[in-house]
Amino acid sequence: MEEKIKKVIRDVPDFPKPGIIFKDITPIMMDAKLSNEILDHLVETYEGQGIEAIAGIESRGFLFGYPLAMRLGIPFILIRKKGKLPYDKISCDYDLEYGTATIEIHTDAVGHKTKVLIHDDLLATGGSAEAAARLIEKAGGEVAGFNFLVELEFLNGRQKLDSYSKNISNLVTY
Amino acid sequence: MEEKIKKVIRDVPDFPKPGIIFKDITPIMMDAKLSNEILDHLVETYEGQGIEAIAGIESRGFLFGYPLAMRLGIPFILIRKKGKLPYDKISCDYDLEYGTATIEIHTDAVGHKTKVLIHDDLLATGGSAEAAARLIEKAGGEVAGFNFLVELEFLNGRQKLDSYSKNISNLVTY
Q1: Residue A123 forms beta bridges with which residues?
Q2: A50-173 is a CATH 3.40.50.2020 domain
Q3: Is A63 within 8 Å of B66 when comparing Cβ atoms?
Q4: What is the distance between the alpha carbons of residues A145 and A123, in angstroms, rounded to a whole number?
């Protein structure tokens, strides 16, 4: 599965700025067969593991997060960028290379002690995933794990996350 | 189906500004049974209709757009906000109430004359959907239709779209 996905992910040099090689996952979405294989793989991985909800981080975390939740028959929680969620919400800031960003969750999106798997397309430095974990806990849930399509291992993002859950997995590693 | 969805959609008064009643669809995502029923309904609607790709508008258009494409076995095209797509791209501006917004598509995301269904969660004034249609055509594709979860009929968004395709459908009307 990893080699198959790597063949499709596209390296885009100098995005979003000079010197960065961006891993473009959009060709995966153009390939329906591979997309279904990835989704089947995620379903097999998390079926029967006691996960009670999936939280996806806007916006690429919505791509596999929601279909996975539908296939597992459990709620999908939207974690969105600041100002996008309309109802009562909780916010969390996290550091970017320059400045900070904020993500939010609806206060009623997570049931008490619900076991939530946090999903995003990419684990880089782990800042947004850690902020998502804090949001899940503030909202009353428990972090049952993290799942990413791609991990950039050299950025050590897992170090930020393993105090929330040791259950961290990804499909592709660079 | 419409009544079932309307029971779940939440009215949020004064969002994003005073006097607007926002239709919050996030409770649909919390309801896995309803989510699967909606997806099944969309699959039944578009199966065998000659649709060759689905384009979803960031970010709520990703929610049902990608699962629908996966179920139909066709490519999913991401239409994103300015600056988010990493590769060679085409841009299109559209008017907001105050100022303009820009959406983008990868130049290689649409095959020549590919019949594309444009999907988003909400048809309001139709500005972003029309911009999406222009992007699909600029990229070499054909607009085979538009699909929305919710239409705000009193805003007459269809008027902006029917020169691209008469095939405009939605699940819920207000």
Answers
A1: A151
A2: yes
A3: yes
A4: 13
Q: Which residue has the tokens 């919710």?
A: B150
Which pTM does this prediction carry?
0.97
Read off the pLDDT of residues A111-153 as tens digits, 9 standing for 90 and up: 999 999 999 999 999 999 999 999 999 999 999 999 999 999 9
pLDDT above 80 (res A89): yes
Q: Which of B10, B24, B30 to mutate to test the interface with A (most CBs of A within 10 A)?
A: B30
Q: How many CB atoms lie within 10 A of CB A84?
A: 16
pLDDT at position A58 is: 98
Q: What is the pLDDT of residues B123-132, one digit of tens each?
A: 999 999 999 9
Q: How far apart are CA A87 and CA A106, in angstroms?
A: 6
Q: Which of A52, A60, A134, A158 is catalytic?
A: A60
CA distances from B168 to A161, B43, B144 (A): 44, 15, 9
Q: Are B36 and B42 in contact (CB under 8 A)?
A: no
Cβ atoms A12, B86 nearer than 8 A: yes
Specify whether A158 is catalytic.
no
Q: Is the peptide bond before A59 cis (omega within 30 degrees of 0)?
A: yes
Per-residue pLDDT tens over the stretch B64-88:
999 999 999 999 999 999 999 999 9
Beta strands in B25-167 (DSSP E): 53-57, 76-81, 89-95, 100-106, 115-123, 142-151
CB contact under 8 A, A29 and B83: no
- Reading the block at residue A144, the tokens are 């049952």
Give the number of other CB atoms < 10 A from CB of residue A142: 16
Sheet holding A89-95, edge to edge: A89-95, A100-106, A76-81, A53-57, A115-123, A142-151, A168-173
What is the CB neighbour count within 10 angstroms for residue B166? Answer: 10
Which tokens hold the place of B6? 């309307």
Report domain extents, chain A. Answer: 50-173
> How many beta-carbon pairs below 8 A join chains A and B?
101
Per-residue pLDDT for A163 more than 80? yes
